[in-house]
Amino acid sequence: MPTTPLPEILAPAFAERYGVPAINVFNELSMAAVLEGAVEVRSPLIVQTSVKTVKQMGARTLFAIWESLTRDIEIPVALHLDHCPDRDVITECLETGWTSVLFDAHELPVEENQRQTIEVVAQARKHGAAVEGEIEAITGVEDGLGTDAPSERQTLDVQLRYLEATGVDVFAPALGNAHGAYKEAPVLDFERVSAIVEAHPVPIALHGGSGLSDEQFKEMIARGTAKVNISTALKHAFMKSGLEYLKECEASDKWEPVKLFDVQARAMRELAMDMANTFGSAGRA
């Protein structure tokens, strides 16, 4: 099965009220592991790359890995560029083959954000790609992007004007969520999702999904959150499973790099499977 356009993955999720895991990967091992997990539970999957990962590995190298891993895959998968304020990086990824991008221009005035987003949508359409839009900061710093300062909330009227003018395929409002590890239980604005979706039916993206409760996930998804982002949890699975194995290596003085990779891959694969089951996407592919 070839790579599936993001709107085709999210349309049934939005209509039937299940969430699709959108997992940020950082190397070949993590990409392979989450894809394997999604295949095992027959879930659609959105694989996300940060700007930092694209710059570190190189867009062509990263996309070559993606093509190799998904060439014969039998579930719907999409490759998404997460939080990117850099138009040059967006251009590079679209020209290389990414199927969707998040143009993150929340630091600009809404009018300028909207004007540039219209340009990015037009550019993406020429490549058969989709665009996620954002006009409010998601609290927290991830991969060097973001801020810990609370975001200014825009009114529903402002949000609707932006959605109508830009035609973005996915919308990421601030909902009380945050990137990174939560220091305390977040208070999510469920009604905000319902208000946006009722006025302008568009799949909502929930950022900062790592650390939310199953009940919070399910309530958000029931209201129209079709794309659920997971990043920190995957990093924890990778690092903590590796740390535990390295402690065993130190105790026994036996060092097996391949076994280390197996342990980390299993932890990340299981995380992807757990997320698909929690979000209701398992068995949908």
What are the defining features of this structure?
285 residues; alpha/beta; TIM Barrel; eight-stranded parallel sheet; two-stranded antiparallel ribbon; 11 helices; 51% helix; 16% strand; FBA_II
Write the layout of secondary structure elements.
Elements lengths: L5 H11 L3 E6 L2 H13 L4 E5 L1 H7 L1 H12 L6 E8 L2 H10 L3 E5 L5 H17 L3 E5 L5 E3 L2 E3 L8 H11 L3 E2 L18 H10 L4 E3 L7 H9 L2 E6 L1 H21 L4 H23 L6
Parallel strand pairs: 1-2, 1-10, 2-3, 3-4, 4-5, 5-8, 9-10
Antiparallel strand pairs: 6-7
CATH superfamily: Aldolase class I
Would you identify the CATH architecture?
Answer: Alpha-Beta Barrel
Total of domains: 1
CATH C-level class: Alpha Beta
Quickly give the structural class.
Answer: alpha/beta
CATH fold naming = TIM Barrel
End-to-end separation:
11 Å
Strand content: 15-25%
Q: Helix content range of the residues, please?
A: 40-55%
Give a verbal description of the structure.
With 285 residues, the chain is of the alpha/beta class. The chain is 51% helix and 16% strand. The chain has one domain: TIM Barrel, CATH 3.20.20.70. β3, α5 (87-96) and β4 form a beta-alpha-beta unit. α6 (110-126) runs parallel beside α7 (156-166). The termini are close together. The mean pLDDT is 92.
